[in-house]
Design a protein that fits this description.
Elements: H1 3-14, H2 25-52, H3 57-62, H4 66-74, E1 81-83, H5 86-92, H6 95-99, H7 104-124, H8 136-153, H9 155-159, H10 168-176, H11 184-203, H12 209-224, H13 234-237, H14 257-289, H15 295-311, E2 318-320, H16 321-329, H17 336-356, H18 361-375, H19 378-386, H20 389-404, H21 407-425, E3 430-436, E4 442-445, H22 452-455, E5 460-468, H23 474-485, E6 492-496, E7 500-501, H24 505-520, E8 524-530, H25 532-541, H26 543-547, E9 552-554, H27 561-573, H28 584-591
Parallel strand pairs: 5-6, 5-7, 6-8, 8-9
Antiparallel strand pairs: 1-2, 3-4, 3-5
Helix pairs in contact: 2-12, 2-16, 2-17, 2-18, 4-15, 4-17, 5-8, 7-14, 7-15, 8-18, 8-20, 8-21, 11-12, 11-18, 14-15, 14-16, 14-21, 19-20, 20-21, 23-24
């Protein structure tokens, strides 16, 4: 690599915001509209998530200002919005167990700094591939368990009764002992807020339901004096000051070596969850926008956002799925939409702080119950349970860990399960392109082999995949598919999986994502040479139907027969895309005596 290329790569990792060539008035308008839309969601979420973390509500808003700006500037994704998230806030809430009598605010500021330092270090050392070692069932298991914990944790606020500390079962038991003291007005307010959010979402997803419901509940609290009805308000927890995000530092005692040492296990768990969350969000959106991501830059950018949280009154942040998705859906063009989102929130804090104080705690409980329900993805859970027994085991162990252990310990249990499964099945995944000699012979070449140019079909790429096709190989498979799909001339991709084993729900997700992206562009993905176990797994998880049953070819006794049938099918689907009369693929099928339809014989 040349010196200029090295300098460009270093600039892209350290300062990705410098790449804004051609930014115009139309881009500015789209980014501003998106930023305004996301800001309306940020306010209620920031307050609610800080309550989940057991922190003053203002810290959730502070964590959504400067950290959001820094994250938008320094990560590689153009659409991910950094800030507090539900699952991460619940994990941060375990900080109290490590604080040992110290001020929890000061302690959580130090936690933010430690998390940021770890994430920046991981990015500089280019450890991005480490997130591939944590399987989807473990991540979904943690999020599911956290969602149920969040819901159970809000029950005392919903009924305005006493709660209890401890694990999930202890909290449920403690809450149930005071049900006869339930405040009916609080229950009604929470139910109305939750119902309004769900109803507005079904009516029109573009309506900021949480903001609308919380605003109306706050107005009602102010006009009707909810406090006289026994309903607590945010000011009863900690008033939100009308001020800019403060410059903050952990106090002197929190900076002691002993305090660092006591927080390191929790900081490691927060670092892992934050990176997995933000990387997953970035990849999901990049799959739609076709933006090329640098996972190491994602790590560094997320780390700098957490360092900013430590010095501007926030707490550990991640990439928000809901706000990032809304940012993309609202038409954001560049990373400046995230910058504007953070900037817009700063002046709002000067005027809205006292108004937020009137929000009823029961209304926030209703909002958080909807958040908790959203975290329990029944469709993904069923897919995991129906897949491999090891996937179901990893999911179950992680969920159970969140219910009976401290959340930072549950994270490590999930990571340990992932590593055990990785070590059991770890093997290198190899992906080669299959090309065809004029005499009908088949050759395997690497994807970047220059010889392939003269032997390959311009419109159909045939890839041979070998090795253990499990969650640890998902990144390699995704990278190989992205490289081929990046060429707009490729109209069909054929994956030959005869010598690939260990297909699981994580790699099925990669295949589903690729098939969906290709289908949206009028292109096709074919899977051939599937063994019985893989074929059954695709059918049980519903992936075969999503990809297309006519695009899935099981293995046959005759060598290469399944691939031949898929190639003939691919040529039939090409339509007007013609790469010449001497298509190597068409020649190969003629030699093999498998003739595609006459109108596609010259395509390929």
């Amino acid at each position: 690599m040349s010196l200029g290329s090295n300098a460009r790569a270093l600039r892209e990792q350290l300062a990705p915001f410098l790449d804004l060539k051609g930014y115009g008035r139309e881009d500015l308008g789209k980014d501003l509209v998106s930023a305004l839309t996301v800001t309306f969601m940020t306010i209620p979420q920031g307050v609610a998530y800080a309550i989940i973390a057991g922190l003053p509500p203002a810290m959730g808003l502070y964590a959504s200002c400067v950290p959001t700006i820094v994250g938008a500037l320094f990560r590689s994704s153009n659409h991910v919005v950094a800030g507090p998230t539900n699952a991460l806030s619940l994990l941060v809430g375990t900080t109290g167990a490590a604080a040992a009598g110290l001020d929890p605010v000061s302690t959580v500021l130090l936690l933010s700094f430690l998390v940021g330092a770890m994430q920046v270090t991981a990015g500089v050392l280019r450890l991005g591939l480490l997130v591939d070692w944590i399987s989807t069932p473990v991540v979904i298991g943690y999020i599911t368990g956290a969602g149920i914990l969040i819901g159970v944790g809000q029950l005392p606020s919903l009924t305005e009764t006493a709660g209890a500390e401890g694990n999930l079962f202890e909290k449920l038991w403690g809450w149930s002992q005071h049900l006869d003291e339930t405040n009916g007005w609080a229950l009604l307010v929470g139910a109305i807020v939750a119902g309004s959010i769900v109803g507005l979402r079904r009516l029109d997803k573009r309506v900021p339901g949480p903001m609308v419901a919380l605003t109306l509940a706050t107005l009602a609290s102010w006009l009707l004096d909810f406090e006289a009805l026994g309903l607590r308000r945010i000011e009863d927890l900690a008033p939100v000051p009308a001020s800019l995000p403060p410059l903050t530092l952990p106090d002197g005692e929190a900076w002691s070596f002993d305090r660092w040492l006591s927080l390191l296990p929790l900081a490691g768990a927060v670092t892992v969850l934050s990176l997995v969350e933000s990387s997953s969000v970035a990849r999901a959106i990049a799959a739609r926008t076709r933006q090329r991501l640098d996972v190491n830059t994602e790590f560094s950018g997320q780390g700098l956002a957490n360092v900013a949280a430590a010095f501007f009154g926030g707490y550990p942040v991640s990439g928000s799925l809901s706000r990032s998705a809304l940012n993309h859906q609202s038409g954001a063009r560049t990373r400046l939409a995230g910058v504007m989102n953070g900037l817009l929130l700063i002046p709002l804090l000067l005027f809205m702080g006292p108004a937020i104080d009137f929000a009823p705690i029961a209304a926030l409980a209703g909002l958080l119950l909807v958040v908790a329900a959203d975290l329990v993805d029944v469709e993904r859970i069923l897919q995991i349970v129906k897949a491999r027994p090891s996937d179901a085991f990893a999911f179950g162990v992680t969920v159970l860990g969140t219910w009976i252990l401290r959340l930072d310990q549950a994270i490590y249990v999930g990571v340990a399960v992932s590593l055990v499964l990785f070590l059991r099945r770890a093997r290198m995944l190899t992906v080669h392109q299959i090309v065809f000699e004029p005499d009908g012979r088949v050759r395997e070449l690497t994807l970047d082999d220059p010889d392939a140019e003269y032997l390959e079909c311009a419109n159909v790429k045939v890839l041979n995949v070998e090795g253990q096709l499990f969650f640890g190989a998902a990144g390699e498979l995704q990278q190989a598919l992205d490289e081929v799909m990046r060429d707009p001339a490729v109209r069909a991709v054929i994956l030959r999986l005869r010598r690939a084993k260990g297909l699981d729900v994580t790699t099925i997700g990669v295949l589903e994502e690729a098939a969906g992206q290709l289908a949206a562009e009028g292109r096709h993905l074919f899977l051939v040479g599937l063994q019985d176990q893989a074929q059954t797994l695709l059918e049980r998880t519903g992936a075969a139907e999503l990809i297309g049953t006519d695009h899935v070819f099981p293995t046959t006794l005759r060598w290469f027969q399944a691939a031949d049938l898929a190639m003939a099918e691919a040529l039939e689907h090409l339509g007007d895309h013609d790469c010449g009369d001497a298509c190597p693929l068409a020649r190969h099928l003629a030699v093999r005596d498998i003739t595609p339809p006459l109108d596609a014989a010259s395509s390929g």
